[in-house]
């Protein structure tokens, strides 16, 4: 089962302030954004959550983090049913895939493709290349035994 620390760090890793090529949010940036949502936390407290020294945040903190990272709040909770466990696992797989695609440059390429003129022939070519990259990632996942792709 994933720890709160694992889930929070996955959210920080996958969701970046300046798009896929940007650095991770700093704890202080997230704390300030949570403050704007009415959730009072410090960057230091988020650091304790991220390194596992604290692992039981309040419901308000969980809701604030879910809102900030645009995730279902259930992701940060301990699942109590098989359905909830599968939902949490699915969200986590999506975050890991997002981070992997970012690391392999797929997301940056997709963003660049979306910025091209729609009537440009370049868009069709960009979409074709993006599809090829996604298919290569899926093939790699299957070969490595990743159950999310089987």
The CATH homologous superfamily of the domain at 1-77 corresponds to lambda repressor-like DNA-binding domains
- CA radius of gyration is 18 Å
How does the helix and strand content classify structurally? mainly alpha
**Cα shape:** globular
Question: What pattern of helices and strands is seen along the backbone?
Answer: HHHHHHH
Q: Work out the number of β strands.
A: 0
CATH architecture of the domain at 1-77: Orthogonal Bundle
Which stretches are low in confidence, meaning pLDDT under 50 for 5 or more residues running? Answer: 146-150
Strand content: under 5%
Q: Helix proportion of residues, in percent?
A: 55-70%
Number of helices: 7
Distance between the termini: 21 Å
Please give the largest β-sheet: none
Name of the level-1 CATH class of the domain at 1-77: Mainly Alpha
CATH topology of the domain at 1-77, anyone? 434 Repressor (Amino-terminal Domain)
Mean pLDDT over the residues: 81
Please give a quick description of this structure.
The chain is an all-alpha fold and 150 residues long.
Structural features, described:
The structure is a single chain. With about 150 residues, this protein is mainly alpha-helical. The protein has a domain at about 1-75: lambda repressor-like DNA-binding domains (434 Repressor (Amino-terminal Domain), Orthogonal Bundle). It has helices spanning about 5-15, 25-35, 45-50, 60-70, 80-105, 105-115, 120-145. Residues about 145-150 have low confidence and may be disordered.
């Amino acid at each position: 089962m994933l720890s709160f620390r694992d889930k929070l760090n996955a959210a920080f890793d996958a969701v970046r302030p300046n798009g896929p090529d940007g650095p991770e949010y700093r704890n202080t940036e997230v704390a300030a954004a949570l403050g704007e949502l009415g959730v009072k936390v410090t960057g230091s407290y988020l650091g304790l959550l991220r390194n596992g020294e604290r692992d039981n945040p309040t419901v308000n903190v969980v809701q604030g983090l879910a809102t900030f990272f645009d995730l279902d709040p259930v992701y940060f909770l301990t699942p109590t049913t098989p359905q909830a466990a599968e939902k949490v696992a699915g969200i986590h797989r999506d975050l890991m895939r997002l981070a992997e695609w970012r690391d392999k440059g797929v997301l940056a390429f997709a963003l660049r493709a979306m910025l091209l003129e729609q009537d440009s022939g370049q868009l069709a070519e960009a979409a074709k290349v993006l599809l090829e990259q996604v298919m290569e990632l899926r093939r790699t996942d299957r070969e490595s035994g990743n159950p999310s792709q089987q």
